[in-house]
Amino acid sequence: MRSHFTSVLSANLAWILLLAAGLLEVVWAYTLKLSDGFGRLAPSLVTLAAMAASFGLLSVAMRSLPLGTAYTVWTGIGAIGSFAVGIVVLGEAVTPMRLCAAALIVGGLVLMKLSSGH
Q1: Which residues are within 8 A (CB) of 61 and not within 5 positions of it... i.e. 6 or more apart?
Q2: Fewer Cβ atoms within 10 A, N terminus or C terminus of the chain?
């Protein structure tokens, strides 16, 4: 039987791994854009490596976190991070409607975390 400390440590580590997996999703989304449809070698290789690492960390986090919570948070981090990279790095449009949509995603992530019990 696990101790309470081990259980809390395991849950905290799962959230850290999930955050890292989500950030790697942002990396692969950005480098996928740079790969020009896998036509450029270096960004294509980074994309594939980041994808593998992201999926690997997500799978480890899912050992402790519920599927719905882990997957939703992972995709949400990727969506918001990619949205931010698009604006800051790629010069994509900032409109009130896009900002509202991003705020709704962030709100959903916060609610998912609060409701997870982990």
Answers
A1: 14, 15, 17, 18, 21, 70, 74
A2: N
Q: What is the DSSP letter of 65?
A: S
Residue 72 CA to residue 22 CA, distance in Å, equals 10
pTM (two decimals): 0.84
Of the candidates 84, 111, 112, 103, the residue with the CA atom closest to the CA atom of residue 26? 84
Cβ atoms of 50 and 57 within 8 Å: the answer is: no
CA-based nearest residue to 61, from 21, 5, 27: 21
**Helix locations, the chain, DSSP H:** 4-34, 41-61, 67-88, 96-116
> Rounded distance, CA 34 to CA 37, Å?
8
- Residue found by looking up tokens 């939703």 in the block: 72
- Asked whether the beta carbons of 43 and 34 are under 8 A apart, the reply is yes
